[in-house]
Amino acid sequence: MSYRQSAPPQSGQPESPPKLTHRQQQARATTLQLVLALAACFVVLFGVLALVPHKDTGFTPPTIDVSARAKAAAPKADFPLAQAHMKGWKANAVSFKHTGDAGVPTWYVSYLGPDDGWLSVKQAAHAPSGWAADQYGKSVATGNRTVDGVKWKLRTTGSDGNQYMIGKVDGITYVLMGQADLPQFDTFAKDLLASVK
Where are the extended beta strands (E) located within the chain? Predict the structure, then answer.
């Protein structure tokens, strides 16, 4: 058996690095691709997170002038359009459109309040008996409540926390809906009825 000895490197010449096999080159390329793909995923993730609004960003809903919208809708309505002026509550949606199968002219205003409170009113004159039921859907009756001499029916959907107060004054049906405590509903009802007197 003879062993070949490799010649010692000649002085002054750098030792050449060993050549990588095809498999070693593929393994190195796969690792590099994995690192680049992971970096791209993080860039996309941080980009999406930067675009999503966060509660602590101080987002304020646009101010909606309910009085101006009511004035514009008044010629189409045959009833006075209610609006609330509760301190700390701001309108975030207003509409006047025909709703339900009967196409009942309906005034709608939604308000956002402090502590994530939310209240809205749907109002219609001479609405058929099924109109109010269409508004509160599959809620459950929970009792009655009298506010300033007006009797209101109370309903709740339970799981999502939506509560309803349904009342009728001078032929106008009011469906109040929201996620707020009953004293806030009372103030809301008083405010709405005072606005149409």
Answer: 90-99, 104-112, 118-125, 140-147, 150-156, 163-169, 172-179
143: which strand partners?
A: 154
| Residue 10, in any domain of the structure | no
> Whole-angstrom Cα distance, residue 90 to residue 24?
66
- What Å distances lie between residue 88 and 34, 161, 168, CA to CA? 52, 21, 27
| Non-local CB neighbours of 107 within 8 Å, separated by 6+ positions | 70, 73, 77, 79, 81, 82, 95, 96, 121, 122, 123, 124
How many C-beta atoms surround the C-beta of residue 67 within 10 A?
A: 13
183 lies in the same domain as 136:
yes
pLDDT of residue 62: 72
Shared-domain flag, residues 44 and 78: no
- 126 lies in some domain: yes
Q: Strand, helix or coil at 190?
A: helix
Q: DSSP assignment, residue 26?
A: H
Q: Are 124 and 131 in contact (CB under 8 A)?
A: yes
Let me know whether 93 and 146 are in one domain: yes
- Residue 47 has phi, psi (to 5 degrees) of -65, -45
pLDDT, averaged per 10 consecutive residues of the chain (197 residues), comes to 55 69 71 82 83 65 86 92 91 90 90 88 90 85 92 87 91 92 93 91
